[in-house]
Amino acid sequence: MTLFYYKGKNSLCEEISGTFRAENKASVAKMIKNQGYIPIKIKKVKINSLAYMLTVIINKINPINIAVFCEQLAVMLDAGIDILESLSAIEKQTENGKFRNTIVNLIHDIRCGQTLAEACKNYPLIFSEIMIHMIEAGELSGELSHVLKILSEYHRDMVKQREKIKNILTYPSILGLVSVLVVSFLTTHVLPVYVNIFSSAGAELPKITQLLLYISSNAFKLFAIIFILIIISITAMATILTSREAMYRIDMIKLSIPFIGKLVKKASLAKVTRILCILISSGIPLLKALEVTSNTVKNSVIKKQLLKIHMGLKRGRNISEVMSEKDFPPMFVKIIATGEESGVLEEMLSKAASFYEYEVGIFQERLVTLIEPMIIILLTLVIAFIAISTVMPMFEIYNIY
């Protein structure tokens, strides 16, 4: 389905606007008319465009807000409160203005006959694709509150990881800022003295000092060039991402990167097994469960493998049999095979999900732990370069005089 931006107006000159996923413009126009409005503007949104990416960054909602929203909605649904009443109560106590407006729009869309997942699809800047598909799975299985609790935990873990990274980056950031101030002081007050001494003696400054002077005197130009290159790179990447073939190749490269590739594979396996477990335990047929699960996977290589497994199941083959022909870990395939043979696939999926979630947690901890020393080493090299550039002329002066 394509994402469209729309505007509508009614007889009282009241306007509505937003985004809506549909097959074509006619479907969007029908949706607007059903709400009692006349379509004014319907425009296809280029998801991979630079403008859209900037809009996503500007309108991004803090994951903690999403986590609280999911948790509150889950609690109210467990208490037997209707979804519209639950959303209305949450909207009244939501402090973030943008998110509050989104909840108001969700209430409006649900009243117009959409499910929660369908309503969330209209706001891709707020709700991720994974979240939408998981809510859809929860609605299909009748386990929406359970899925919302999982989503709440998922977003809280995301916040924890971000906080860890922020804490790790605090010291290197302060060190980097101090380095910039020191360089500014040296290039404006100390190095000009050396330049005068060497020029009056008819001598040449050391090459490393000349390099530092060049960088400091052309800093604005260099930053401008770097900024332009970043913009060009983002635009080129956005263009590349529109091609499915290019996206597939990029995802292949991601999986082949040492350490990162393992993390992506294990994280995808953990997600796939957990969602499959939730769906199957809720009475959803395996074929439908696998179809919904494949939509939650971002990596196109793994998604393609899941779709092939889905096709194999349609032809009457066992899930473990098809998996053994794909790039799945032997241990994972054995766990699935044991579950199928013993009739406890749901239990085996739960165990596999717990195992891979634990492994992903360890991988992430290691990755986060590596960030700080790498940044400090980089800053140490920069500071060493500055120190040598400043000290070298002092030794050269002794040779001149």
How are the SSEs ordered, and which strands pair?
Blueprint: E1 2-9, E2 15-22, H1 25-34, E3 38-44, H2 50-58, H3 63-78, H4 83-93, H5 97-111, H6 116-121, H7 129-141, H8 144-200, H9 207-217, H10 219-240, H11 244-256, H12 260-281, H13 286-294, H14 300-314, H15 319-323, H16 330-342, H17 345-400
Antiparallel strand pairs: 1-2, 1-3
Helix pairs in contact: 3-4, 3-8, 4-5, 7-8, 7-12, 8-9, 8-17, 9-17, 11-12, 12-13, 12-17, 13-14, 16-17
Overview of this protein structure:
This protein is mainly alpha-helical and 401 residues long. The chain folds into 3 domains: 2-45; 47-127, no CATH class; 129-401, Receptor-associated Protein (Up-down Bundle), CATH 1.20.81.30. Helix content is 76%, strand content 6%. It has a 3-stranded antiparallel sheet with strand order 2-1-3, with helices on one face. A hairpin with a 5-residue loop joins strand 1 (2-9) and strand 2. Helix 4 (83-93) runs antiparallel to helix 5 (97-111) and helix 9 packs across helix 17.
